[in-house]
Amino acid sequence: EETVTMTVTYAEYQPHVGDQDALKLTVAGAIQETGQVLAKELRVRLHTPELTLTLLGPAVVGQEVAIQVVFQNPLPEPLSGVSLRMEGAGIACPKPVSL
After folding, report:
1. N or C: which end of the chain has fewer CB atoms below 10 A?
2. Is there a contact between 38 and 18 (Cβ–Cβ < 8 Å)?
3. Which residues contact 41 (CB under 8 A, 6 or more apart)?
4. Where are the domains of the chain?
């Protein structure tokens, strides 16, 4: 029995992720003495960062309320083309906020 550790860097898998939030990893090995081939597949779901919403004042019927949205970029590179959109009851036409 032997344990082997392999590291997959973000730079290696980033070009292949696209809009998906998962990686499919396959490992294969061959036994020289028998010629038997072994393979195993693993689907890994990438954790997506959370958005945190905080009211910045009291929520009163008929009045505006400011909401703070916090998002932390977990990637080792800046994001571009990011937009946030808030939806909810009574919000007739949600407008995206570009960041």
Report:
1. N
2. no
3. 24, 25, 26
4. 10-45, 50-98
Model pTM score: 0.57
- Please, which residues have CB within 8 angstroms of residue 54's CB and are 6 or more apart in sequence? 67, 68, 70
- Strands, DSSP E only, in the chain? 22-30, 37-45, 52-55, 67-70, 83-84, 97-98
From residue 3, give the alpha-carbon distance in Å to each of 6, 7, 9, 27, 56: 10, 13, 20, 13, 51
Q: How many C-beta atoms surround the C-beta of residue 71 within 10 A? A: 13
The pair of three-digit structure tokens given for residue 48, joined into one six-digit string: 């997506």
DSSP 65-90: --EEEE----SSS---S-EE----TT
Nearest partner of 27 among 47, 1, 5, judged by Cα:
5
